[in-house]
């Protein structure tokens, strides 16, 4: 998954946010999440070391307000933001591209998982129909109790197989989403909507197949 900020860009972007207004650390993390549509939320371990470095460079100051530490830009910091305005424009453009790429990757992962689920469910349903056809043929040839037992056993095996397929799909999607979040991303509402619609389509297809 591509990084949202290139090397050094986050430092300048933090200065830009502080140029808008003084903020404490959580405000900065939330602002970054808001500016990226929820696809990037930095950790405290990412933000605070950079703020400390900016303070050492004389570009920001900090004051304690109750239990919060508020950071404010200095005149030297404003001068740097003004001097690098063209770089900020490039960061904004690159940020929009990165957000689109991350969202596309999550959607692609969901689509591939849904495609695999539909194929597995269709194969399971077809296998169930084939078994049912064989059971009916066997029933016409012989009314023995053993034939009925075999049919029931086959159905139970196919049920276990279908449950395993669904469980594997669920585990795959959860793993992909957790990996996305672990890389600093968040789930946009439209991505979850896509997943919901795809699941509804898969369920409707399975219902039609089993009728």
Automatic annotation (TrEMBL):
Region (Disordered): 122-159
Residue spans of biased composition, Low complexity class: 139-148
Record-annotated Transcription regulator PadR N-terminal domain positions: 14-82
Compositionally biased tracts (Basic and acidic residues): 127-138, 149-159
UniProt cross-references to Pfam families, sorted A to Z: PadR
InterPro entries named among the record's database cross-references: ArsR-like_HTH, Tscrpt_reg_PadR_N, WH-like_DNA-bd_sf, WH_DNA-bd_sf
Taxonomy, superkingdom: Bacteria
Family annotation (CDD domains): HTH_ARSR (cd00090)
PANTHER family in UniProt: TRANSCRIPTIONAL REGULATOR YQJI
Name recorded for this polypeptide: Transcriptional regulator YqjI
């Amino acid at each position: 998954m591509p990084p949202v900020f290139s090397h050094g860009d986050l430092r300048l972007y933090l200065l830009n946010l502080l140029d808008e207004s003084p903020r404490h650390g959580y405000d900065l993390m939330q602002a970054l999440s808001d500016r990226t549509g929820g696809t990037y939320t930095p950790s405290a371990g990412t933000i605070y070391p950079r703020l400390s470095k900016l303070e050492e460079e004389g570009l920001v100051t900090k004051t304690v307000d109750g239990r919060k530490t508020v950071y404010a830009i200095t005149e030297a910091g404003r001068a740097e933001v003004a001097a690098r305005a063209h770089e900020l424009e490039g960061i904004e453009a690159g940020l929009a591209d990165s957000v689109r790429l991350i969202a596309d990757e999550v959607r692609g992962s969901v689509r591939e998982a849904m495609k695999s689920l539909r194929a597995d469910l269709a194969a399971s349903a077809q296998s169930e129909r084939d078994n049912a056809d064989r059971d009916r043929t066997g029933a016409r040839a012989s009314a023995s109790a053993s034939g009925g037992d075999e049919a029931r056993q086959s159905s139970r095996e196919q049920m276990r197989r279908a449950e395993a397929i669904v469980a594997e799909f669920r585990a795959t999607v959860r793993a992909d989403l957790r990996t996305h979040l672990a890389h600093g991303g968040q789930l946009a509402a439209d991505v979850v909507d896509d997943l919901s619609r795809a699941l509804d389509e898969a369920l409707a297809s399975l219902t039609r197949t089993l009728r």
